Fold:
Amino acid sequence: MSEVSSGRPPSSGATSPNAPSSGALEDGSAREADPSVRVVTRDRVEAAVRDALLTGQFVPGHAVTLRGLAGQLGVSPMPVREAIRGLSAANALDVLPNGRIRVPTMTRQRFDELLHARVLLEPHLAMLALPNLVELADDLTRIDDAIDISLVTGDVTTYMRRNHEFHFRIYRASASQIILPLVEHVWLQFAPFMRTAYGRVGTSALEDQHKEAIAAIRENEPEKLRVAIERDILDGMGLIGHSVLEDPPAATAFPDGDGKTGAITTLQPQAGSRSERSTRSRD
Structure:
């Protein structure tokens, strides 16, 4: 689990700038013996691993060790094992017979099912949320402005984090207890692959329908919002993902936290040719 912004693999002692350090988690084996601390630590570890999945810090098909992951997070293996169990149940991670952990390899069938699930669930969730979204339009605009900047600068990690924030600011306004968790699980399954896809095609190829969605929210138009979210999924994940699956990207190996070999896609962000997106009409 590591981030590459320069296209060069990190040294063996490097840790992700987005992964919590041992100081950030303020954890240790002795404190984990306290049940209340153990629960808090497990939740924080799971949040850190979820963020790593959503920003593509794991490469599909490449395994890491429980000990290496625990070392990078600055905790003992126990809370990591508990967090991984929940993410494995959500199909976001596989636990191999040898105890190593990996993101499932993306296949065309798996990708198509995830894409279909998004198209079925997310536009409906946005429409459910619409009565609660008008007051969030300005916040959504600020998030989208940050997305524009990340696309121009080629900052893939920030793009993925802000794009997730944009969508889930909308979806969580639905207060759904059934559909929202399903969508959260779907995102955990496709995000790592999309990071490799963005590294392959560059940020200049990314398109979205965020401004159209915001306009639909301001106009209180549920059908326009449904169409904007559906097109956003198909124009973004659909087109880019399918193009990469036909010509899979290579990966760069690097030592993980315990000195064993893991892998992360070599990213080469492509800045430029996206500046026109920032000036595109918002209506």
